[in-house]
Amino acid sequence: MLDALSEKFEKILKKLRGSGVLTEQNIAEAMKEVRLALLEADVNFKIVKDFVERVGKKAVGQEVMQSLTPGHQVVKVVWDELRAMMGGEKAGLALSSAPPTVVMMVGLQGAGKTTTCGKLARFFKQQGRRVLLVAADPRRPAAGDQLASLGRDLQIDVHRQDQAGASQTDVVRICQDGVRRGTDQGFDVVVLDTGGRLHVDDELMGELVAVKAAVKPHEVLLVADAMTGQDAVNMATQFHERVGVTGIILTKVEGDARGGAVLSIRAVTGQPIKFLGVGEKLDALELFHPDRMASRILGMGDVLSLIEKAQETFTREQAEEAQKRLTSNTFTLEDFRAQLAQVNKLGSLDQILGMLPGGQKLRGAMEGQVPEREMKRVVAIIDSMTRRERRDHTLINGSRKKRIARGSGTNVMEVNRLIKQFLSARKLAKMLTGASGRRQLAQLLNSR
Ligand code: GDP
C-alpha cells in the first residue's frame, strides 16, 4: 500500500533528520524532492503546490529552526500536513437514531461497488446490526446474482426484484420497496447497491438523483478504484457535483503503490474517505484514519491498526492462555500449530510488515522469499505428525522423522529445522517473560 511513495518520503526525511543544522537551503531542497515525490504519486498538482508551500513556510518558521531537533520537527510538520490533506480527523458513518440507516452506494462498474456492499454489510453485522442488502440494478441480473451470492456467504438478507428494461421510475420504486422492507422488518441498516456504468453518463446520474430524492439516504458513499489515481479523483468530483455524496470508499488500495487518489481525493472533492478496500476478501475493509495513513506513508508504521486487528482476531482469554502455556513446559507442537493458524488470520506477513515501523525495509530485505509458503510447509509438517508426536516432540526419532517428511512432501532436514525452531521459540518466550529475561531484553533495547 503506497509503498513507492512511502519509500521516497522515508529517504527524504532521513536526510533531514540526519542534518544537525537545518538551513533554509536544505529545507528548500527537501521540498523540491517532496514535490517531485507527490507528483510522481499522481497527486493533483494544485494540491501538491499548496502542500509544499505550507510545509516549507512552517519548516523555516522560528519554532522549528530554533528547536533542539529541527530535523524531527520538520518531519512532524510534514506529518501534520499530510494528515490535514487527507481530512484530519477520522470520518465516522452517520447512523440514524431512527433505524434503518439507509446507505446508498454509487460508483462506476468494476470499481468494486458490489463487493464493497458485502464488506460493509459484514462490517455492520459484526457490530451486531441487522443488515438488508438491496439489489438496485434490476436490469442486470448478473449484478443481482453477485449480491445474492455475497448475501448467502455472509448470511445477510438480500432484497431483489429483477426487471429487464426497468425504467427510472421502476428503479426508484424498487429502492423504496427495499427501504420499506427494511423498516417493516426491523433492519438496522439498509445498503442500496445501485447500478453502475462504464462511464459517467446523464442517464445514470439522473437515476441516482431520483433514487436519492426518493429514499433520502443517510449516507451516499462513492466507491472508487484507487489504482486509477487522478481518474478516480475526477470521477469523484463529477459524482459529487451531480449527485452529492457524503463520503468515499477507495478500493484496491493494497495494490496502489503511488497513492494519488488516497492523498488528494479529499482535498479535491471536499468529501472524506471513510473506508479503504484492501483486498478481494470480504474482511478486507479498513476504517480510514488520516493520521495513521500519514504515519504509514512516512514509514512510521501503523501499530494502532495492527493492535486493533489483533484484538479482533484473538480474545484476551486466548492470548492469556497461550502465554501461560508458552512459558510453561506444556507448550507443544500442537499449540505452536494453533498459534500459527491464528497469526495467519491477521493477514499476510506482507500486510503485517507494512503496518510496522520500518517494516518496509524488512520487506525489502526479504525480497524473493515467500514466508507464506514457508508457513504452509511448517503446517504441513506438523499435520503429518501423529497426535502423540505433536504433544510430545521427544518421541520423534529418526524413523518417525522420515515418515513425517514423506507425509508432508518435505525432507528430514526440514523436519529437524522445524523442531529446532519450535524449541527455540519456547526458550525465547520463557526468557522474555522471566524477570531476568526482561532485564536482558531491556538492556538489549537500550544499547541499540
Ligand atoms: P462493481 O462492478 O463496482 O460492482 O465491482 P465488483 O464488486 O464486481 O468488483 C470488481 C472487481 O474488483 C472484483 O474482481 C473484485 O473482487 C475486485 N475488488 C473489489 N474491491 C477490491 C479491493 O479492495 N482489492 C482488490 N484487490 N480487488 C477488489
From TrEMBL:
The entry's keywords: Cytoplasm, GTP-binding, Hydrolase, Nucleotide-binding, Ribonucleoprotein, RNA-binding, Signal recognition particle
Residues the entry annotates as binding GTP: 107-114
Superkingdom, taxonomy of origin: Bacteria
SRP54-type proteins GTP-binding domain segment(s): 272-285
Entries under SUPFAM superfamilies matching the protein: P-loop containing nucleoside triphosphate hydrolases (SSF52540), Signal peptide-binding domain (SSF47446)
Protein EC: 3.6.5.4
Pfam families reported in the protein's UniProt record: SRP54, SRP54_N, SRP_SPB
Function per UniProt: Involved in targeting and insertion of nascent membrane proteins into the cytoplasmic membrane. Binds to the hydrophobic signal sequence of the ribosome-nascent chain (RNC) as it emerges from the ribosomes. The SRP-RNC complex is then targeted to the cytoplasmic membrane where it interacts with the SRP receptor FtsY.
Family: Belongs to the GTP-binding SRP family. SRP54 subfamily.
Stated name of the protein: Signal recognition particle protein
